[in-house]
Amino acid sequence: MKHYIIPVFIPHYGCTHACVFCNQRKITGRMSPVSAQEVTGIINEHIGRITETRHIEVAFYGGSFTALDIKVQSELLAPAYSALQSSKINAIRISTRPDCINDTIVQNLIAFGVTTIELGVQSLDNKVLEASARGHSATDVDQAVHTIKKMGLRCGIQLMPGLPEEDWVSMIITARGVIRLAPDFVRIYPTIVIAHTKLAEMYYDGSYTALNISAGITRAAFFKIMFAQHNILVIRTGLQATEDLDSSDVVLAGPYHPAFGEMVDSYLFYLMLVHCVESLRLGESSSILIHHHSRDTSKLRGMSNSNIKKLRSIYNISNLTLKADGQKLDELMIEYQSICYIINKKMLFHI
Ligand code: SF4
User: What is the CATH number assigned to the segment(s) 3-258?
Assistant: First the structure.
């Protein structure tokens, strides 16, 4: 059954921190705190719009939900819980900081029907967490994930490649740490520079260099390959486009693009193509046939056919044919003379 998320944004509400990259009011498009009455209104409004049978989930996004006083958490959860009990919705999730999780907090969330907690982890390299003024360490993440899992809830992790002081060693530390923690899912949100944040000041004074689109794609692709190899689901890559984010005076720099996720997948297909072609040792003016799933055609081609054009020009392929004929999703079979080569992203590289 298809999912339907009812988002309830809680910008900066309860958060006592000032992470360098954060201006939640701009990210969520919301400038004021939310009340229990508003939560009821938001839920009813969405339910009124749903015409097909869906798995409906209320998601408290945007802030540090469990940094709120526990009484306030209960007040905000109560309307969602009541909708859950009367079967108007099917699930409730919240997102929060790793250092705002303990047994009492999780027990209270469970009492109000919460089944999924997403942690804003961002990185597992302490040097990066410190430079980003996150106010928690990688150890806090370990403890939070263990508490959530021990109490039987689903645990998601959000990562932000491109934070200050991050290098490829940080990326490897983070990838390995996430694999060890084995969350139920991951979201990848490359760091962008938002106006009126500390990161914007650092960007202007030259102490921070933002990733460009291609570097953002490479880092996100690295995480996707690593997590695919360990069967960790990546449910989103790149921030959801909003009117605010699309306005040029909000996003100052960084790898923001409304189709970022698609661009990362296209890059992964390009890597797969190159891997096959290199292994096949093509002769002069070769001819190859690429079998794939029909839903992968646009990712395989890349934006404006860029993957195919690049491959043709670099490897002198005179005849390259794409055939959408029932290959598995995210997998390619390349036919060249009498050789067939099958590849998926799990086979790309290991660390
Ligand atoms: S903890 Fe979350 S809401 Fe608070 S400043 Fe950091 S990113 Fe923003």
Answer: 3.20.20.70
